[in-house]
Amino acid sequence: MPKTSDHFAAAELARLCAAKGLRHAVISPGSRSAPLVIAFNAQEGIQCLQVIDERSAAFFALGMAQQLHAPVVLICTSGSAVLNYGPAIAEAFYQRVPLLVITADRPEEWVDQGEGQAIRQQGVLALHMKRSVQLPRNANDDLSRWHCGRLINEAIDATLLPVPGPVHVNVPFAEPLYGTSEAIGGTRFIAPVMTESFILPEHARWLTGQLSASKKVMVLAGQGIWSDGMRKQLVQLASLPQVTVMTEATSNLDDATFITTIDRTIEGITDDNETDLKPDLLITFGGAIVSKRIKGLLRNWKPAQHWNVDLGQRHYDTYQSLTHDIAVSPEVFFAQLSGSVIASESIYRDAWRMVDERIAKAHERILVEAPFCDLVVFEQLLQRIPANSDVHLANSTPARYAQLFQRTRGQRWFSNRGTSGIDGCTSTAVGATFATEKATTLITGDTAFLYDSNAFWNEHLSPHLRIIVIDNGGGNIFRYIDGPDKNAELLPWFEAPHGRDPMALARSFDLPCYEVKDMASLKAGLEQLYNAHEKPAVLVVRTDAEVSPKVLREYFKKLKA
Amino acid sequence: MPKTSDHFAAAELARLCAAKGLRHAVISPGSRSAPLVIAFNAQEGIQCLQVIDERSAAFFALGMAQQLHAPVVLICTSGSAVLNYGPAIAEAFYQRVPLLVITADRPEEWVDQGEGQAIRQQGVLALHMKRSVQLPRNANDDLSRWHCGRLINEAIDATLLPVPGPVHVNVPFAEPLYGTSEAIGGTRFIAPVMTESFILPEHARWLTGQLSASKKVMVLAGQGIWSDGMRKQLVQLASLPQVTVMTEATSNLDDATFITTIDRTIEGITDDNETDLKPDLLITFGGAIVSKRIKGLLRNWKPAQHWNVDLGQRHYDTYQSLTHDIAVSPEVFFAQLSGSVIASESIYRDAWRMVDERIAKAHERILVEAPFCDLVVFEQLLQRIPANSDVHLANSTPARYAQLFQRTRGQRWFSNRGTSGIDGCTSTAVGATFATEKATTLITGDTAFLYDSNAFWNEHLSPHLRIIVIDNGGGNIFRYIDGPDKNAELLPWFEAPHGRDPMALARSFDLPCYEVKDMASLKAGLEQLYNAHEKPAVLVVRTDAEVSPKVLREYFKKLKA
Questions:
Q1: Distance of CA A500 to CAs A466, A489, B52, B362, B509, Å?
Q2: Distance between CA atoms of A454 and A56, rounded to whole angstroms?
Q3: Which residues of B touch A180 (CB under 8 A)?
């Protein structure tokens, strides 16, 4: 038997994680966590990865888990280390990414007793955890060993069922911390038997009937990664005259018959066609919707029926119109229903397509004439980013710009839209690329890139990662939101004029980096960027802080014209 | 009347903060927080400072408030921004630094409804807040305006009374966010009338009697900044034969009659003198104690009486010996008692002094012979850091080394010993120096320095700040703790071998920086460092990762010899 930690809880955590198929532990250095470090390093089947800054480590793990569709273990020491996980945990909670967060603790008896690195760790992140458990410090009899094992089984399973998310396991350890012993084997493995929910036949019949009878059905896809089978079901639905399917980049559901550029297409709504475009029945599924405009529009329109399809019973009433909460997975929902829906007499699909085509043409015309600016840069990027590669969109300008372009080249799109924070976009992409070993591009802004400045502080940087930093001098997304422009003297407080060069940050990590500032150098820079590199390569694109928001405002005005 | 935000809660927060004497607001950029940005910028008497990374911003504010002994306002937008405050909040909670944490929020009705940047903010950091309040979104009638004003008064006062700490004010705002209006004046100012607690005379007499009768009284001072009057009371106490006063750097109480180098002095305890050195009565006060050795020793010794003096009724039983919880401020306690204590027949004071002097001589001998290493570097630093300046000690190696040297040059010593995290040591020093405009030196390690890499990402860097980074290749403090050295292959998991150069980080911010690696260059480097600079200057001292822990182990062995 191999040597592991002589702390039962640590050894058992490592053993059961491996038994349940977890393969990676992202560990930040520390002392109290020594039993976990020993146990996970001794555990066959688990790869340990070191990331020093816990804030970055948690986003790194999130990026991995997002790609692997499997829980990744996070391990840190006691004290404020745990709190640095906070931002990524909230993101994982809302984005539904499975993380098993194992935090070493002092014995709970010592909390608030003047011990160093002892804080109130039990449940400290519970508001954004699916579950928070406290393991026993001394599992020295059968009852407490049973308790410890049962809690570990439960915690690991809770990262995935019924929907994925973060789970907190807090483990107090008393000194000595560094002892090892033969693995004592341990508690039972409790197997989670996989289940699937279906809609009861009589309800399914009613739903199909509604879909077949309705004249105006809008399907709006939130964030997610879906099976090709489901995409085909949606294509089938979208072939019906009464159905329009709307998707965003992060929906990862593109088809020529869908409306895939919501933010620009809805600019084509006029007093004349609004009645034709309003849905009677709205069907939503998946995670976050990026478009603020579609949210505002649907809240105004208030469709007569809104079905939200979500296994986790999230009960989102985003459009203040929810009438049916359908607690099955979207995959099941469309598989069960879409084949049985029959065409109704309707112009709904075609009304939306007409608008979409008209706006698409206007978009082309405007882009041809536009000067070098963020919008034009995005057009170039989306043409040049390798086909079938992965793209991560940082918050929030890149995530918004990406909605304005058609996506036709088979990329998968990711973004931290659970909480829409800028705090870990780079670390997430670094972790994701480590997991996939696949060509990946992060499109980010100067502020988000500089914020997550420890993202490259680890030994797990993939040469497949490319980072494009659009440096417009600090988040001028605010300049095209109504309001901030009216308080010009306060603009610096909404933006982030940082006086710091993204190139200097890239250089401080010895990353290959390039800098461009006009169309010719952008094209050349993109070629350099996508050459082979041994490390993640960075392209900084300088755009004018005044021109870009101005062009965007004009863009939306001209679309309408 | 000047224009302020048309959101009542925002305007009222700014007005009451100013009325209660708050002078600084540290603001991170964002959109939802616009009403707060407008109101605080419009508020006479309050200076607004921008720090982009919320994790760094909160430590920056903590550094300011620690120096000003007054609450500093923190303002951020909704979402994960708030969670980035977590580490500094826990530090402020345990270090008792007053912070008014104002977080903008979406209307609470939209939480968990698919809105971007909406998380469960209400009370999200409550475990380490003295209080968490939620302001009403619509203060549109007298009752809700009264409620809003009362909560704000209460929250601001709670940052200081009865003991300082962080308080959370969560403020939901509905759009539009950017509107302004004349200040509508508002609710009542509720004045906190200052009070002071004294020990009841009959209890004070009993305590004085105990002190006068006891043969062996140890006074152990935790972290804090105290009045000169109190220091004199302690000197008076220390003149009694039955009293020994022990202080650490961060106690900021030094006197030739105190034991000020606990960690080295207690190495002089032997089987022969242990009985003479054990206290019968232990008196403790103040914040954290750095020395793990004194904690372990006192837990073993278990004095017959342990009085903890703390106005906040912290009820710390750090030594598992607590017999009296004395809920007055230490200032009051010593003022009330120390003049009345009479000398008892005792060798206690002199027994400790003998040990202290013997060990001091051994210390000198060892240092003379030691090769260039962390210990020797510290000796040099403590001689060269300007007299009467401020010194910040990062966690955890610098905070520990500083305990081994006598401090005779009038510096004040600070360290984030509330949670002993490495996450914000630099940002704290940056904020503190901004507040004091006083010569300040941060002594830090390579890992802590690299971790808090956004500390210089603001426009408020004082030219009075100097940073000394002892680069020993990643936290080899673990090499002299028993245990990790027995698992050599696991060492990288306890330390943080980072493959990253502190010089590159300093250069990326255009900070003047110098690099030294032996005694001669160290002396020259220190001269350069303390020359005038326009920005914080950085000195990186390279020490050998093998030599330093070896010397330290030998040091403790030789002290005993």
A1: 21, 21, 12, 50, 7
A2: 7
A3: 487
Stated as kind and residue range, the H or E segment containing A104 is: strand A99-105
Contact map slice: A 168-227 vs B, CB within 8 A = 176-178, 180, 222
Gap between the Cα atoms of A478 and A553, Å rounded = 12
Chain B residue numbers with beta carbons less than 8 Å from the beta carbon of A86 are 80, 83-84, 86
In a domain, B497, yes or no: yes
A317 contacts B37? CB cut-off 8 A: no
Asked if A171 and A205 sit in the same domain, the reply is: no
- Per-position pLDDT tens, chain A of length 561: 579 999 999 999 999 999 999 999 999 999 999 999 999 999 999 999 999 999 999 999 999 999 999 999 999 999 999 999 999 999 999 999 999 999 999 999 999 998 888 999 999 999 999 999 999 998 889 999 999 999 999 999 999 998 999 999 999 999 999 999 998 767 789 988 888 899 999 999 999 999 999 999 999 999 999 999 999 999 999 999 999 999 999 999 999 999 999 999 999 999 999 999 999 999 999 999 999 999 999 999 999 999 999 998 677 899 999 999 999 999 999 999 999 999 999 999 999 999 999 999 999 999 999 999 999 999 999 999 999 999 999 998 999 999 999 998 899 999 999 999 999 999 999 999 999 999 999 999 999 999 999 999 999 999 999 999 999 876 555 555 556 666 677 777 777 666 799 999 999 999 999 999 999 999 999 999 999 999 999 999 999 988 998 999 999 999 988
Residues of A484-516 as b/e, b for ≥16 C-beta within 10 angstroms?
beebeebbebbbbbbebbbbbbbbbbebbbbbb
- Tell me which residue of B383, B351, B337, B385 sits closest to B259, measured CA to CA: B351
Whole-angstrom distance, CA of residue B266 vs CA of residue B356: 8
**pTM tops 0.90, yes or no:** yes
Would you call A324 exposed, middle or buried from its count of C-beta atoms within 10 A (0-12, 13-18, 19+)?
A: middle
> For residue A172, what are its two tokens?
């107090």
Task: Identify the H or E element spanning B172.
Answer: strand B166-172
CB atoms A113 and B316 under 8 Å: yes
Number of domains in chain A: 3
**Do A22 and A121 belong to one domain?**
yes
In terms of Cα–Cα distance, which of A415, A173, A216, A432 is closest to A305?
A216
Helix (H, G, I), strand (E, B) or coil at A421: coil
Q: Which residue has the tokens 């050295």?
A: B485
B178 and B65 inside one domain:
yes
CA distances from A428 to A454, A468, B455 (A): 12, 15, 22
- Say whether residue A34 is in contact with chain B using an 8 A CB cutoff: yes
Contact B449, B475 (CB under 8 A): no
- A77 and A160 inside one domain: yes
CA distance B493 to chain A (A): 5
- Helix and strand counts by DSSP (H, E) for chain A: 21, 19
Strand B390-393 and strand B412-414: the pairing is parallel
Q: Quick check: helix, strand or coil at residue B514?
A: strand
d(CA B292, CA B289): 8
In the DSSP assignment, the letter for residue B485 is G
> What is the distance between the alpha carbons of residues A123 and B98, in angstroms, rounded to a whole number?
24
Say yes or no: A505 contacts chain B, CB-CB below 8 A.
yes
Looking at B182, B216, B234, the residue that finishes a domain is: B182
Task: Out of B54, B80, B177, name the one closest to residue A91 (CB).
Answer: B80
* Contacts A482 to B, Cβ<8 Å: 176, 178
Tokens standing for residue A362: 């206007």
Domain CATH for B61: 3.40.50.970
- Provide the domain limits for residue B40: 3-182
